[in-house]
Amino acid sequence: MNSRRDFLQKIAASAITLPFMPLSGWAQAPAPYDGPVLRVAIMGLGSYANRVANAMQSCTKAKLVGVISGTPSKVQDWQGRFGIPAKNCYNYDNFDRIKENQDIDVVYVTTPNALHRDQVIRVAAAGKHVICEKPMALNAKEGEEMIAACKKAKVQLLVGYRMHFEPKTLEVIRMRQNGDFGKVLFFQGQCGFKIGDPTQWRLNKQLAGGGAMMDIGIYAINGSRYMIGEDPIWVTAQETKTDPVKFKEGVDETIQFQLGFPGGAVASCLSTYNMNNLDRFFLNGEKGFAELQPSTGYGPIKGRTHQGELTQPHTTHQTVQMDEMAGILLEGKRPVVAVDGEEALKDLKIIDAIYQAVKTGKKVALTV
Ligand code: NDP
Q1: How far is the CA of 40 from the centre of ligand 1 (A)?
Q2: Tell me: the pLDDT tens digits for 328-360?
Q3: DSSP 133
Q4: Rounded to the nearest 5°, which phi and psi values hold at 364?
Q5: Alpha-carbon distances, residue 296 vs 184, 191, 232, 276 (angstroms)
Q6: For 158-192, what is each residue's pLDDT tens digit?
Q7: Residue nearest to atom 10 of ligand 1 (CA)
Q8: Mutation test residue for ligand 1: of 82, 107, 111, the one with most atoms within 8 Å of CB
Q9: HSE-CB of 357 using CA atoms within 13 angstroms
């Protein structure tokens, strides 16, 4: 009993003395952020927009303030969920008027691929920065037009490459830059999932611009570049199709492709809409290796190198991405791996070359 009373007395005493204790030696809470905040409107309130909006609730430097949608019921729902004022709500007919809205800095385009080009060009003409989802466009020509429009309007164009901010991915890049793998010789990128509903826009050539390559194969393309640290100079590719009803003309089901890099490394990649459990990157060099599996899903990303497990913490990709993009757009911060229109254009040039290689059966030389 006595010892219990002593204990309680000690607690009471420490509670009384707490406010007078010096702060040194205690974990100090970070100072509240009082820098500039990026005010974001999202266009196309679908599945990914919801993910981004939810993740942005935890951002310190970015805030969801507006929406652009073709569905009035979604606008009403989002207004309620995220406290969006009516004056920041637009549809596809009237969103050019965003030009007059001083409370929106950037529009994040999360509509089907085929709509990106025109929508990005319209946002740029309205004088707002643009974040566009991947793939930035259907082909390199469209990508170039978007970049030119943003330059002309003096706004920035970023693309939603969330993996460029992912801690384990960045650690592999740091190790490669540090020479830990020695001369890099080989990359393997396997990206795919079994796609469901045959009526969805992802299986409609007009809206998707292609098939698995546009949607998921692009991760292997982009990943090969940031893992190896170079841009490819040639490509070969082979397509297989087991279900020509579901995957119509121009909608690729499975493509294997190979990329050659100036330093001598080669990449061997698979893009598919017909296999699950395919989300793996492997990098091999003369002195070591890195493996990420899963490598590009929403995480947690897992990985190891010849030095052991990668232990960097899991982050919500879209939260970090939006905070980092706020830093880029508002403070001129430079990311480790670029996320601008030029970066995305490289992937589009490679996709164009892969489709050309599939069609011709020939090796296609590349200058990205
Ligand atoms: P969804 O189909 O879920 O949403 C797209 C939204 O775009 C719709 O809900 C609709 O919103 C709007 N829209 C406008 N016109 C059309 C149309 N003709 N057909 C269909 N929708 C239309 O797609 P996702 O959210 O999955 O994908 C959107 C984009 O985001 C794609 O480019 C995709 O590649 C990319 N993405 C990126 C991911 C990443 O990890 N970075 C992950 C998933 C997707 P509304 O009713 O409000 O107009």
Answers
A1: 17
A2: 999 999 999 999 999 999 999 999 999 999 999
A3: P
A4: -115, 125
A5: 21, 8, 20, 14
A6: 999 999 999 999 999 999 999 999 999 999 999 99
A7: 44
A8: 111
A9: 21
What is the chain's length?
368
Domains and CATH numbers, the chain: 38-162 (3.40.50.720), 163-314+340-365 (3.30.360.10)
Q: Is the CB–ligand 1 distance for residue 111 below 6 Å?
A: yes
The response to whether residue 69 sits with its C-beta less than 6 Å from ligand 1 reads yes
pLDDT recorded at residue 281:
99
Q: Is the CB of 318 under 6 A from ligand 1?
A: no
CA of 112 to the centre of ligand 1 (A): 5
Best mutation site among 42, 84, 110 for ligand 1, i.e. most ligand atoms within 8 A of its Cβ?
110
pLDDT for 32: 87
Residue by residue, DSSP assigns 222-240 as HHHHHHH-S--SEEEEEEE
**DSSP β-bridge partners for residue 68:** 43, 90
Query: Which pair of tokens denotes residue 188?
Result: 């393997």
DSSP per-residue string spanning 241-258: -S-TTTS-TT--SEEEEE
What does the block give as tokens for 247? 């995957």
Spatial separation of the C-alpha atoms in residues 360 and 54, rounded to whole Å: 44
Residue 148, amino acid: A
Instruction: Name the residue with tokens 């082909």.
Output: 139
Q: In the numeric block, which tokens belong to residue 286?
A: 């003369």
Q: How far is the CA of 113 from the centre of ligand 1 (A)?
A: 8
Q: Whose CA is nearest to atom 30 of ligand 1?
A: 110
